[in-house]
Amino acid sequence: MITDEELKTKMDYILEICTSIDLQYDKKKMLNNIANVTKSASQKQLIVYEPNAIIICILKLFFYYNEIASQNMCKWKRRRKCRLAKECYINLLQVYIPEKSKEILEAVINVIYEDKLWEFETFCFEIMCSLLEYDVYNWPDTHETVTVIERILNLFYISITSSHATVNFMPYATFKKGLEVCIINMVKHVSNDHLLIIIQHMCSWVVEKGMTDEIILDFGSTLEYTAYVHEVTLYEKTLTPKIFPLLMEMIASTSKIISLLGNRVTQYLLDREENKMNFDTPKIFFEDIQFDLTIEATYCTICLIAVEVPCGFIAAALVCLLMNVQDVTLKQTKHHVEVSKSYHIHATVIAVMSLLCWIHKAKAFYEYMNKVMMERAQWAPHLNPPIQSQYNFAAHHILWNKPDLFFVDWEARYGLWKCFRLHETEEEPQDT
């Protein structure tokens, strides 16, 4: 254990020569001095001293033995010195973080900037990762935080649009990857409300006039990751009046990439109970089967809405939507427009219908759905799930198009009425 007087002497020595450690003797003596301080002094003793000088010294020594000394020092000795310097750096981070995180960060950035260490990418990556491992900045819920987030997003937007431009702002394109990493790490540590700010800005970029698929691909994964990290509580807090219209515009887009991205983001913002993987492809939800669902791509989005908001209004709205989709598909099929894709749509319609029956335990609706499913199984199995990438029919096979193979509007309405009318009757108080 080192005494306070001895520690003061050593720290004064470090402060005195931290800017002039050019001689080989000074480097060796300085490293031994810092190693002695980090091993002998307690955190309580060291924390009273400003970390700037000792951090600058150890980083310069670490850099010297890691990158420079290989030319005039044996490999074994250099590795030992380099390992010792890194251990001292880690020990100092453990001592000063989190009490003096800001001072440590400023010292590290100053060394990288003044000594042009950014030219040594691996070394910079190593020291910054060590810093991030011990120091996580908690973003306060203030206006200043929102301002910083918006400025970083603005720089990122300029960088991704500049990388595809032929003129102007080209220097910003070089920052694209670094800003993307910055945003991804920032997403891990900001609040739910701040995540919604990021989602809102990126969604607004997607629907901008003149936005290209190439630019969307540059930030689409970051947008999707942000939506994944967001913790959904109440929908009124997540699907705000600013975000919801943007998502609907994305889903309705004629661009496949924008529509797919809109669906994926919406799914993450709806999926409170991790049901998403249950709806990766259309399938029949049989009456007596048990799924690991709590009561709580377009098919997946519809299914998530159905399970997350299990009420009569949503069920009726979705059935209405499905019936309209079926009608439009049948009209297109008559004109021989993408006949094979119509099979996918009909399979998706019956899959969602079966899910609604399963959620609400709609007996009458289930009977009708099963009737349609069995008719299809006998005469047109290609209209039932699972979806196939290619449909092969025998030469003599007849593609039936009977009315019994499709849902009839009044039958679906009756199934819903029977289900929810029965529920209302059961909930009415009994007369005494």
From TrEMBL:
Spans traversing the lipid bilayer: 46-65, 299-325, 345-366
Keywords: Membrane, Transmembrane, Transmembrane helix
Keyword Membrane: yes
Domain of life according to the entry: Eukaryota
Any one GO biological process: protein localization to plasma membrane
InterPro entries for the chain: EFR3_Homologs
GO cellular component, one term: plasma membrane
Keyword Iron: no
PANTHER family, per the entry: AGAP013133-PA, PROTEIN EFR3 HOMOLOG CMP44E
Identification of the protein by name: Uncharacterized protein
Organism: Heterotrigona itama
